[in-house]
Amino acid sequence: MKKKIISIVLAIWVLMIVISVVLLFLPRTIHLVGVGVKYRLGGEDNREPEQTVHIKMNGKRYLTTSGDYIFRGTIDIEGEPFPVPEDQKMLKIRFHEGYGLMEYFIYENGKTGIFLYGTLFVDRAFSKLTIAISEEDSSGEQNSKSWSSEDGLMLSMPATNRSEAIQLSNELMETYSGALH
User: Which UniProt keywords apply (predicted)?
Assistant: First the structure.
């Protein structure tokens, strides 16, 4: 009788572990809608006025066996004219240590191109985000983009002002580039 009880308890324990693992790897629906702030880093003489923007992030988040996340879906940012055909706005972003590249793969006229919007940072729950927006590089090279912690363009959500946006960016980018100003 004692062996039977031990076998049942062991079977229940194994079943609970299997169910937990399966639930962990099931895709999670991401539906993040909110207001963010787009702003430029740097001193007073370099600053542009911050802008309030609406952001929508819809898709699925997948956990990989390496512990990274993959987001498959769309991110719409009010007022941002992405040079990407409407039918190609689906993103696949692999997040390693909380950040991944927000890049679109474009197929037109038999050619493939890439449009890099920036580096996207998210929290584990995908409830907060900040983007280090890549801008045309001053080097003069065609399609060369970069971002600088000195005067880079940022977008953070949820935030209602520059102060909140910088605080959120610092929180999400902590291990990536240090404190912003």
Answer: Membrane, Transmembrane, Transmembrane helix
